[in-house]
Amino acid sequence: MGFLQLFYVASVPMIKVLLISVLGLLLALDRVDILGGTARTHVNHMVFYVFNPAMVGDNLAKTITWESLKSVWFMPFNVLATFLIGSALGWLLIKLLRPPKHLEGLILGCCSTGNLGNLPIVIIPAICREKGSPFGDPDVCYQYGMAYASLSMALGAVFVWSYVYNIMRNSAMKFQREGNSDGDFRKLKASAENPESLLDGRSETLNPSKDAMDDAYTMLLPNAEPVENTKVPISEKIKSYLVKILTSVNWKHMFAPSTTAAIVGFVIGLIPLLRNLLIGSDAPLRVVESSATMLGDAAIPTVTIILGANLLRGLKGTSSMWSTTVGIVAVRYIFLPILGALVVKGAIHVGLVNSDPLYHFVLLLQYSLPPAMNIGTIAQLFGGTESECSFIMLWTYVLASVAVTLWSTYFMWLVS
Questions:
Q1: Whole-angstrom Cα distance, residue 148 to residue 74?
Q2: How many other C-beta atoms can be found within 10 angstroms of the C-beta atom of residue 199?
Q3: CB 165 within 8 A of CB 378
Q4: Transmembrane segments in this chain: where (predicted)?
Q5: Backbone angles phi, psi at 209, to 5 degrees
């Protein structure tokens, strides 16, 4: 299949995303105010608690069996690799740019986590249904593509709220401890342990501390407390480290509705009795599955509209963020996809990944996506970087229409 034909197939989904996102942005304008602040909150809640879980659970229940489970076991390791490689590149970017201390956690978060849920569930079905797709029968491609995208969404939620959440939390706590009074630090620490309390009040802008010279790498640790010089047995160190990790993880957010729905979908798909009751045209309780399908079908258009509406705030960003934004764009759209292609092709070469080209494409696509929208939510939880985050999100998503199209074209050529 020619490169130009693949480029056309890859560009159609991104054009659809761009058009519907622009519609969402227009609906969020003050003079229109259909998707104002309150409306966006309610729609976000509907997507988060209803549409996405229905779509994830339904698609996994229909496609996951013991046989198919053997073919997707590598995806969790691939998602973990995107986070670790992105974190390493983000750390190098911080060393190169030396941004204000309060932005280091935001930069690491944007570099380490991609939009593993919303964009794949838009891009993959559109590519499957486009004439000239290299992935064969559109219906089969759609069924398995949605299952891969749903699993990607669930895994992304787990890693964002267990890994990136703690990076950004520790960054905010470190900055407050080094650059502000002890009282402010205790207040932020209490808020970090109970992040919902921050949503009830107005976040204060944090100012960078000139004397804060700690290595940005320490934010990758689950706790930023100083290490004592006393000798401690290795077993005690390991035990203490694991306890810190378990106590610092935001379990409530990590088991988000989409993640819980993924677990339910796996249980239904893997247990023959439940599968026969719910899945299939002859299933006694097929009305339950068809209702979930109906709700899940609303996820893609709603997610895309609200994506554009959520980017509105970035139009009011500050020009001082240009160098940081360019660095994040380079990490997410140049270096990370190149390194990701090496990881995936290496895994294919040694036989860790099955021979399905669509599965290969999804694994590769996970390295070329813009930052996760949940980064904005985390930035609001800890305060001080909301405007900078909005600015970064706006331009990374604007450029995604070009970057993701080009990388999708190359990845389809690579796997076909």
A1: 12
A2: 11
A3: yes
A4: 6-29, 73-94, 106-127, 147-168, 254-274, 294-312, 333-352, 358-382, 394-415
A5: -95, 125
* Alpha carbon distance 412, 360 (integer Å): 9
C-alpha–C-alpha distance, residues 73 and 68, integer Å: 9
Q: What is the CATH number of domain 3-202+296-415?
A: 1.20.1530
Residue 131 has pLDDT above 90, yes or no: no
Task: Give the separation between CA 295 and CA 285, rounded to whole angstroms.
Answer: 16
d(CA 382, CA 189): 10
- The pLDDT value recorded for residue 207 is 40
pLDDT at 125 over 50: yes
Strand partners, 254: none
Beta bridge partners of 114: 371
What 3-state DSSP class applies to 204? Answer: coil
Q: Are the CB atoms for 383 and 310 separated by under 8 Å?
A: no
Tell which residue, 33, 69, 108, has the closest CA to residue 392: 108
The three-state secondary structure class of 352 is coil
Distances 198 to 105, 243, 379 between C-alpha atoms, Å: 18, 25, 11
Rounded CA-CA distance 392/337 in Å is: 19
The set of residues, in sequence order, having a beta carbon less than 8 Å from that of 337 and lying 6+ positions away, is 364, 367, 368, 407
- The two structure tokens encoding residue 294: 């109906």
Whats the size of the chain, residue-wise? 416
SS3 300: helix
Question: Which residue, among 48, 15, 22, 14, has the nearest Cα to 307 in the 3D structure?
Answer: 22
Give the span between the Cα atoms of 35 and 27, in whole angstroms. 5
Q: Which residues, 6 or more positions from 379, have their beta carbon under 8 angstroms from its beta carbon?
A: 106, 109, 168, 385, 386, 388, 389
Per the rule left: phi > 0, alpha: psi between -120 and 50, beta: everything else, 132 is: left
State the average pLDDT for the chain.
79
- Using alpha carbons, list the distances in angstroms from residue 33 to 20, 22, 29, 30, 42: 17, 14, 6, 5, 14
**Range with the lowest mean pLDDT among 141-150, 175-184, 287-296, 341-350?**
175-184
Separation of alpha carbons 300 and 2, rounded Å? 29
Contact in structure between 121 and 299 (CB atoms under 8 Å): yes
Q: Name which of 153-167, 169-183, 290-304 the model is least confident about.
A: 169-183
Burial 312-340 (b: 16+ CB within 10 A, else e): bbbeebeeebeebbebbbebbbebbbebb
Domain extents for the chain?
3-202+296-415
